[in-house]
Amino acid sequence: NRLGELWWYTVLLLVAQRFGDVINAFIGLWLVPRYVPQSELGALLPLTKVGNALALPLSILVVVFTKYVNIFAVRGEVGKVKSLLRDAFILTTVCFLATVLYARLLMPWAFVRMRVADGHLGMLVVASGVLAIVSTFFTNALQALKRFRRITVIGVTSAPIRLITLLVAMPIRAITGYFAGLVVPTIYGIGAALYGLKDILFNKSIRPQPYLRQHGREMLKFGMPLLVISIIGMPQGLVESFVIRHRLPDIESAAYYMISRLAEIGAFVGASMTFVLFPLASESHERGDHSQKLILHSMGGTLAVGAVLTLVFWTFGGSILGATAAWRPYVGYVRQLTTLTAIIVIGSATQCFVSHEIAQARFGFYWLAGILGLFESLLLYGVTGFEFFAPWVPRSWVDWVAALRPARLNFVLGIKLLGAILFIVSATILLSLRRAGRSHRALRDGKS
Questions:
Q1: Buried b (16+ CB within 10 A) or exposed e, 344-383
Q2: pLDDT digits (tens, 9 = 90+) for 203-218
Q3: Which of 14, 166, 315, 355 is close enough to 181 for a disulfide, judged by CB 3.0 to 4.6 Å?
Q4: Measuring CA to CA, which residue among 198, 170, 163 is closest to residue 184?
Q5: What is the DSSP letter of 35?
Q6: Element (H or E) spanning 6, and its range?
Q7: What's the rounded Cα separation, in Å, for the pair 225 and 237?
Q8: In this structure, how many other beta carbons lie within 10 angstroms of the beta carbon of residue 179?
């Protein structure tokens, strides 16, 4: 009661999920480099991004779904929650089949640029991306109902299942086994989440209630801005990972994979904060509260812990990367490790802000995010492959860009860091203006 729901459940998730993180760290830092050669190691992250990008329509539905499950739960309209869960299952099945069809056209293009052979890998990449979103549907239902203990159990038990799958599959074919290790625990997570919702889904005393006639228009109004702006911003993550694999040498794309396994520790606090923050901010919105304290605590806590981690990597990164034979080839990338950690920490704090704004049904910030993301994507892919424009631009331009040597990890991370800083500064200014506006209105009303 003294900590409040945000910090209590954040700490609960952090402590319990560290068990899973230890296993995932072993997978990412020891098991994967053992079986995946350096020439293919850099292809793992961009192929994962491809799977996620293919599932974009489903990811938009997830946000709308989570918001309205929370709304119906707060209002005690359990019948509508049951109907929404049922419809979500039908929608995900249809979207999965549609995604498989159009993925057959896209995947050959992706595999050529990732410099890996297809085999049966294409279907696993698609399945991993789509099933991850399907899993999110039902995990978010638990989130919206604030069943954080059940989510914690699923998170802890999924990691050992992934490890066992990888130990069996990766010796047979490394990259295919890697994606099998994403698919199998995701299927388990879907089943476990459905079991956690059995008191609603399979309770005959709860009768499904229709919701579309009453809420369909507002759900569409809530979802359309997300769809438009997500389409604008979607290329950012995909292009960043594609540029690193497509334009950079194998050693640098492999180095990015390795340092990202360490740098992503900077997202642990922010990810737990965001997960807990969304239903609390949504409830606050339904009650008419401002929830300014929630967003300040979540962003501040994420940045504070992340700053400490960034300092640790800056000071001891060389010793860490030199600790094992598998990491030693990347010991010269301490500076890039520190930069990437700062990028991930800032992005994680920004995600707290994004989650809060969506929960409060505010989307104005998304235009800025979309524009920044689109500009960054065009800059990265355009500049790193500027020779493509040689027939249409003056040769002096081509020579000037070549002198920058943009096809290197330092340049790509510098652009990413600049984009992350611009966004979080813009978010901070927006929050400050909003707070000042409320203070002014409160003062004016007090005088009245």
A1: bbbbbbbbbbbbbbbbbeebebbeebbebbbebbebbbeb
A2: 888 888 888 888 888 8
A3: 166
A4: 163
A5: H
A6: helix 5-26
A7: 19
A8: 24
- For residue 416, the SS3 value is helix
51 pLDDT above the threshold of 80: no
251 residue type, one letter: I
Q: List, as one string, the DSSP characters of 86-142.
A: HHHHHHHHHHHHHHHHHHHHHHHHHHHHHT---TTHHHHHHHHHHHHHHHHHHHHHH
The pLDDT of residue 232: 63
d(C-alpha 308, C-alpha 338), whole Å: 11
Cα-Cα-Cα-Cα torsion 326, 330, 335, 337, nearest 10 degrees, comes to -40
Cα 188 from Cα 243, distance rounded (Å): 33
Q: Look at residues 279, 42, 337, 18 and name the one whose alpha carbon lies nearest to residue 148.
A: 279
Enter the tokens of residue 349: 């704090």
- DSSP character for 36? S
Whether the per-residue pLDDT at 307 is higher than 70: the answer is yes
Q: Rounded to 10 degrees, what is the CA torsion of 215, 71, 348, 272?
A: -150
**Separation of alpha carbons 20 and 15, rounded Å:** 10
Q: Which of 408, 55, 103 is nearest to 247 (CA)?
A: 408
The answer to whether the pTM exceeds 0.85 is no
Cα–chain center distance at 27: 19
AA letter at 115: R
Whose CA is closest to 298, among 350, 263, 344? 350
Could you tell me if 290 and 359 are in contact, meaning their C-beta atoms sit under 8 angstroms apart?
Answer: no
- 185 with 27: CB under 8 angstroms? no
Angstrom distance (rounded) from CA 336 to CA 384: 18
DSSP letter assigned to residue 30: I
Residue 6 CA neighbour count, 13 Å, CB half: 25
* pLDDT score of 5 more than 70: no
Q: How many CA atoms lie within 13 Å of 310's alpha carbon, on the beta-carbon side?
A: 17
pLDDT attached to residue 7? 62
Identity of the amino acid at 344: I
Residue with the two structure tokens 């929370």: 70
For the four alpha carbons of 17, 22, 24 and 25, in that order, the dihedral sign comes to positive
**Pair 257, 337: CB distance under 8 Å:** no
